[in-house]
């Protein structure tokens, strides 16, 4: 099995997974993200404790790529300090824009590296980065 099919499987698995798709009790932050070009809509809910992202979840609907990217992002940043979450967000967006191509740097993204080749499909890029831009907005506006 090659890396691309492992990544495809990972994206499909996360697109249907419900473990991060839920409402949080008493979140500190709600942030809506919308992709007008395809109609993807998500709402991120975050629970911050000091400068740690204690919990986060999402609701909404969209294509498999936006749903999977959101779920994988949540798995990656839950429990991390805000600064680290913002750095990972920059790395992910940099990977998608092909500004960061060093695998050593990308390894920090763990499963989110599955989206590395999405930059070859310009129509899908906005789907992949929706949650990451929404998270950045949520944390920048806190």
TrEMBL record:
Compositional bias (Basic and acidic residues): 23-34
Residue ranges of the region described as Disordered: 17-36
Pfam families: NifU_N
Residue intervals of the NIF system FeS cluster assembly NifU N-terminal domain: 7-93
Signal peptide start-end: none
Protein name: SUF system NifU family Fe-S cluster assembly protein
Species assigned in the record: Clostridium cibarium
């Amino acid at each position: 099995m090659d890396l691309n099919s492992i990544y495809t499987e990972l994206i499909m698995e996360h697109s249907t997974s419900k473990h991060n798709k839920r409402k949080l009790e008493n979140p500190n932050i709600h942030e809506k993200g919308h992709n007008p070009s395809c109609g993807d809509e998500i709402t991120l809910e975050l629970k911050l404790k000091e400068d740690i992202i204690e919990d986060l979840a999402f609701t909404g609907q969209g294509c498999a790529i936006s749903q999977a990217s959101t779920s994988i992002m949540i798995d990656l940043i839950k429990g991390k300090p805000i600064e680290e979450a913002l750095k990972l967000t920059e790395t992910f967006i940099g990977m998608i824009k092909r500004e960061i191509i060093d695998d050593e740097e990308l390894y920090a993204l763990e499963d989110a590296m599955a989206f590395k080749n999405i930059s070859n499909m310009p129509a899908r890029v906005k789907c992949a980065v929706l949650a990451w831009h929404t998270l950045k907005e949520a944390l920048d506006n806190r």
